[in-house]
Amino acid sequence: MKVLGPSPAAPRPAATSASTDGTRHTHPQWIVRGRPTFTSGRPPGQTRDVIVRTWSARATPAGAADYHAYFAGTLLPELRGLAGFAGGYLLSRPDGGTVELTTHTFWESAAAIRAFAGEDISRSVVEPQARAVLLDIDPTATHRDVLVDARG
What we know:
Blueprint: E1 2-4, E2 14-18, E3 24-28, E4 31-33, E5 51-59, H1 61-80, E6 85-95, E7 98-107, H2 110-117, H3 128-131, E8 136-137, E9 142-145
């Protein structure tokens, strides 16, 4: 896979935008070909494939706080020890009297996910310590390829 950018031999068109005062700004347009890539913080041409594994659950506010502590203090350190683990997020959203929790973990390959989740990667993996603080658990996880990462 290649990330192509402007080159002296064949310049790529530039994108332009206008600020609120009418000033025009020019930005290079990067074209990505091939499999989806994760490019945050990397120069053009230095990319890697990333798959996001997403799972959700519901908890009481106290259970959400407990799960947060479990995710940060127990689960993430364990995941960091696995080959192919590339990071993760725990998101929360109040929903009535409960809290929706969503995890997004980043993986370098489906094989890395299988090493964590087993052969059926669509099955969620929830340890007893986590189950104890959650009200409702999604039995499945979904997977998506990262197309663009604009965090950097």
